[in-house]
C-alpha cells in the first residue's frame, strides 16, 4: 500500500493506492510552511488516518529536486526549501520516500490513466497561473531523479513580434530570473499581461476569455497574439521530445475553444504531421498530483520487487 501526498502552499492532500485501479483520496490539512516538525506531524496524522502501514510514501510537490544534490527548491514552503527532503522524511518517518514535481506527477497521471494512454512519449503541459510541464517516455518519468526536463515555460523563447498583423512584444521579466519566458505570457497572469500591453485595459483572464467567446475585437486580438506566442515554443518542445500527445491541465485547459485554437496552431508548426488532435484537454481532472505520485510510488515498489 502506497500513501501519496500532494503538497501545496496552502494544503497537504493525501491518498491511498493499492494499485493503479485503486487510488483513493484522503482528507486535506493546512500546510505548515515554517515549521518542519509540524510539517512531519501533519504527514504522520494523515498516515495514521489510514489505519495501515504503507510500504512507501510518494510526494507531488510544487518544487524541483536537484538531481545532483537531491535538495529541493520550494520557495513557497520555507521549512522544506533547501532540504534533501526524501532523506529527511525517510529518517523521520521510517519509510522509503519518492518525490516529484507536481507537473511531472500530472504528466505521469495522464500517461498511465489519462489522455496519454497508449502513447510512448507524453508531454504533459500546464496552462494555469503560469506554464509548466513534464515528460514521460515508455512509462518512465524523465525526471525520475529530479531536474527540469519538460519545463517548456522557461528560457528566453518568446518571439519579439506576434499576431496578425504582428505587434511588438516586450521581453517581460520572469520569476525564474530571465526575460522573455513563455511563462510570462502563457498562463492566466500572462494572458492578463498581454491584454494590458495591447489595449491598456486591466481584465481578469476569465473576463478576457468571456469577451473572446462573445466575439469582442480587443479580446480576439489578445487571444490571437497569445496563441501565436505559445504555439511556437510548444511546437519546438514537441519536435525535440517526439511527443505524440500533449494533455493540458491548469485553469486555461477548461476553455475547450482555446485548446482547439492552440492545437491547430501547434500542428501547423511541427515536423511530424497529425490528422488528429495533438494538444488535448487532460482526462485526470481530480487530484492528478495525488494520482501521479501514487503511480510513481507503485512503480518504485514494482521495480524493487523485480
Automatic annotation (TrEMBL):
Gene3D superfamilies: 3.30.420.40. It comes from the Bacteria. Its EC number is 2.7.1.59. It catalyses: N-acetyl-D-glucosamine + ATP = N-acetyl-D-glucosamine 6-phosphate + ADP + H(+). InterPro entries: ATPase_NBD (IPR043129), ROK (IPR000600). GO terms for molecular function: ATP binding; metal ion binding; N-acetylglucosamine kinase activity. Keywords: ATP-binding, Carbohydrate metabolism, Kinase, Metal-binding, Nucleotide-binding, Transferase, Zinc. PANTHER family: N-ACETYL-D-GLUCOSAMINE KINASE, ROK (REPRESSOR, ORF, KINASE) FAMILY. This is N-acetylglucosamine kinase. It comes from Rhizobium grahamii CCGE 502.
Amino acid at each position: 500500500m502506497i500513501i501519496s501526498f500532494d503538497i501545496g502552499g496552502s494544503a497537504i492532500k493525501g491518498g491511498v493506492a493499492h494499485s493503479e485501479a485503486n487510488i483513493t483520496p484522503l482528507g486535506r490539512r493546512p500546510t505548515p510552511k515554517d515549521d518542519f516538525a509540524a510539517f512531519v506531524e501533519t504527514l504522520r496524522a494523515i498516515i495514521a488516518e489510514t489505519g495501515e502501514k504503507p510500504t512507501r510514501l510518494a510526494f507531488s510537490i510544487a518544487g524541483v529536486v536537484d538531481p545532483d544534490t537531491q535538495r529541493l527548491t520550494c520557495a513557497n514552503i520555507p521549512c522544506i526549501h533547501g532540504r534533501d527532503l526524501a532523506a529527511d522524511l525517510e529518517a523521520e518517518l521510517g519509510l522509503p520516500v519518492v518525490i516529484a514535481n507536481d507537473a511531472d506527477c500530472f504528466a505521469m497521471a495522464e500517461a498511465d490513466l489519462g489522455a496519454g494512454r497508449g502513447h510512448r512519449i507524453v508531454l504533459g503541459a500546464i496552462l494555469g497561473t503560469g506554464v509548466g510541464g513534464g515528460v514521460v517516455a515508455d512509462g518512465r518519468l524523465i525526471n525520475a531523479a529530479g531536474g527540469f526536463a519538460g519545463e517548456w515555460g522557461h528560457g528566453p523563447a518568446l518571439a519579439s513580434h506576434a499576431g496578425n498583423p504582428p505587434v511588438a512584444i516586450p521581453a517581460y521579466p520572469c520569476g525564474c530570473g530571465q526575460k522573455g519566458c513563455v511563462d510570462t505570457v502563457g498562463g492566466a497572469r500572462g494572458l492578463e499581461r498581454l491584454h494590458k500591453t495591447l489595449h491598456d485595459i486591466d481584465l481578469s483572464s476569465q473576463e478576457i476569455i468571456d469577451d473572446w467567446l462573445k466575439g469582442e475585437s480587443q479580446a480576439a486580438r489578445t487571444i490571437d497574439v497569445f496563441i501565436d506566442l505559445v504555439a511556437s515554443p510548444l511546437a519546438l518542445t514537441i519536435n525535440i521530445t517526439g511527443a505524440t500527445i500533449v494533455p493540458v491541465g491548469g485553469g486555461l485547459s477548461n476553455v475547450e475553444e482555446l485548446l482547439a485554437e492552440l492545437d491547430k496552431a501547434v500542428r501547423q508548426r511541427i515536423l511530424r504531421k497529425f490528422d488528429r488532435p495533438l494538444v488535448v484537454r487532460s482526462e485526470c481532472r481530480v487530484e492528478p498530483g495525488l494520482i501521479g505520485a501514487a503511480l510513481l510510488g507503485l512503480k518504485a515498489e514494482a521495480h524493487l520487487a523485480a
